[in-house]
């Protein structure tokens, strides 16, 4: 099995060092995902820039952003991100019943958030070929055309992180082992290990 380095600022390639320092300043620590992404300065920058851009400029509320992030984490079966975004969802004020519905593949009782989740999952599942009816249903739920594209941007961010975690076997952060955060894929998918 190929092993990927979980970099520190000292071990990171030169092109990742400044970004790693900024991540540490922003988060208070360097998450293992970013420490793994640091192997490629381009991948680290792409993920960090997209994540930051969505947080700073998206018209979807922070809670709505988390619904999309978490729906895609669960869709992709990413234990690391689904565990981490459980924490981030609570911090963003996502109601606990919504968090649990996404984590356990149950419908969300709130019709607007369910429409958001269904649209995000359909776009991911159909690789963008969700069709006009899906877009029309999303708009009818009160979302905008710009938010159609914000969902695509969030999915792109999750492709970077979820696929990286699957390919590199990013270990969970210690805090993610808390039973209130740790997520196990109800579909039983796990990344293949050599």
Name the descriptors.
single chain, 194 residues, mainly alpha, Single alpha-helices involved in coiled-coils or other helix-helix interfaces, AhpD-like, 2 domains
Structure in words:
This protein has 194 residues and is mainly α. The protein folds into two domains: 1-57, Single alpha-helices involved in coiled-coils or other helix-helix interfaces, CATH 1.20.5; 60-194, AhpD-like, CATH 1.20.1290. Helices cover 62% and strands 0% of the residues. It has nine helices and no strands. The chain has helices at 14-27, 32-37, 41-57, 62-76, 79-91, 96-103, 111-125, 132-140, 145-168. The protein starts with 13 loop residues before the first helix and ends in a 26-residue tail after the last helix. The model has no long low-confidence stretch (mean pLDDT 96). GO terms for molecular function: peroxiredoxin activity. This is Carboxymuconolactone decarboxylase family protein.
């Amino acid at each position: 099995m190929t092993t990927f380095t979980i970099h520190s600022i000292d071990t990171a390639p030169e092109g990742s060092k400044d970004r790693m320092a900024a991540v540490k300043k922003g988060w208070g620590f360097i998450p293992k995902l970013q420490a793994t992404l640091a192997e490629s300065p381009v991948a680290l920058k792409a993920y960090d820039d997209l994540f930051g851009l969505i947080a700073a400029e998206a018209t979807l509320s922070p809670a709505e952003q988390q619904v999309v992030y978490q729906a895609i984490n669960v869709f992709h079966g990413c234990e690391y991100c689904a565990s981490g975004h459980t924490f981030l969802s609570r911090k963003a004020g996502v109601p606990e019943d919504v968090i649990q519905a996404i984590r356990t593949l149950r419908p969300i009782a709130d019709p607007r958030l369910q429409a958001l989740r269904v649209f995000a999952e359909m776009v991911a599942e159909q690789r963008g070929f969700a069709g006009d009816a899906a877009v029309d249903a999303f708009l009818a739920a009160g979302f905008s055309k710009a938010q159609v594209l914000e969902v695509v941007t969030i999915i792109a961010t999750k492709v970077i992180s979820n696929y990286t975690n699957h390919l590199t076997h990013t270990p969970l952060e210690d805090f993610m082992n808390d039973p209130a955060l740790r997520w196990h894929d109800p579909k039983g998918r796990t990344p293949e290990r050599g």
